[in-house]
Specification:
Blueprint lengths: L2 H21 L7 E8 L5 E8 L3 H13 L1 H11 L7 E6 L2 H27 L9
Parallel strand pairs: 2-3
Antiparallel strand pairs: 1-2
Helix pairs in contact: 1-3
Amino acid sequence: MSTRTLRVNELIQRELSDILRKQYKEEAIAITITGVQVTPDLHEGKVFIAVTGDEEDEVKCLRWLKHNSKDFRFELGRRIVLKHMPAFIYLLDTSTARGNRILGVLDEIAAKEKARDADVSSPSTPDPKE
């Protein structure tokens, strides 16, 4: 990925977050823009979001974002001067959930190892024949 594409990704993420925070306070309170990936030709892009809440909230937020995507694109076009403003697809960012699941598994493994080490290091009972 080129440096220009990375800068465009960061700029779009920052501006889109600002638009949501300032113009759509009530609707977008549970939405966090976690990343943006645009194609090198700037015709398409993916916006990754994280939603605070359950699956029903995620579905509602995605539906709301897709419904208002033209307004977001128009406002981004007013704020950012690009030859082509990408058409965006809004996707859920599952990296946080995967990270939490991995941390949970690592905690389980650590607890099992600690319990096993405690069993091995405990003093053995003396043999009654001695």
